[in-house]
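User: My advisor asked me to double-check a structure prediction for ABC transporter permease before group meeting. I don't want to rely on an old file, so could you generate it fresh from this sequence?
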Amino acid sequence: MTGTHVAESATTIVDLSATTPGDEPRGGAARWFRRLAPLIAVVIVLALLALWISSRELDSIEQRTLNWDYLLARTREHLVLTFVASALVAALAIPIGIAVSRSTSRIFRGMVGAIANIGQATPAVGLIILLAIAWQTGFTTALVGIVAYSFLPVLRNTVAGLDQIEPSVRESARGMGMTSGQSLWRIELPLASPVIIAGLRTALVFAVGVATVATFINAGGLGDMIVNGLKLQRYPVVVVGAVLVAAIAVLIDWFAGLVEELVKPKGL
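Assistant: Sure, here is a fresh prediction for ABC transporter permease from the sequence you gave:
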C-alpha cells in the first residue's frame, strides 16, 4: 500500500445543503428525512415498478419470470452471494490491513497492495469467467471472484484508518500500560471504525453489482433475469431485474450507513 486513499461508500447521499459540520440540518424532522430518504425512494420506485408491470399484458415467457416464486428465489441467491462474499472480505481484508499498517516493510506493503489492485483492476466478467475456465462453474467460483473484486476498498480503508491515528494516541495508550494488542482493540480500531466501515459499505455495493455476472457461470442471482430478458428480448424482465439489483444496493448501503452511525465512537 503506497497511499492512504479512503474509499467512500458508493451510494452515500451527499447533502449539498451541509458542506461543513456547522451547516448540518438541526431539525429532528430534517435529520430523520435525510436518514430515511434512501428507503423512501426505494419504496416509491418499487411501487411504481409494480404498478407498471401490473398494467401490462404479459406473455407466457414473461409470466414464467415475473412471478413471486421466481423473483424471491433469484433475490435470495443474489443476497446469499453478496453477504457471504462480504463476510469473507471483512474476515480477510481487515486482518491483512492491520498487518500492513503494523509492518514497516515497504516490500510487504507494496506486494499486498499490488495483489489487491490486480483483483479490482481486472474486469469482473473477465475475472469470473477466467476462474470458471481454470477451475469450475457455480457458486464457489462466483464467490471467489466477488471476494477478489471487493477486497481492495476494505483493505485500503483499514490501512488508511489505522495510519491516520496520531502517534501520540498510541503513546498515551502505552503510557497507560496497554500492550500493543490492547491499544489496537481498545483504542485504534474503534477510532478507525468509521473509515473501515465506509470501505465495507463500498465492498457491499461492489458485491451486489458483481453478483449480477455470476449468472454467466451458472451461479444464479438476479443476473439470470437480466441476461435471459436480453436474450429473449423481454424488456420488462430486464427492467425488473435491473431495478431490483439497484434497490438492493441502495438498501444495503443505507442499512450499513445506519450501522456506521451506531458504532461510531462518540465525539468523532
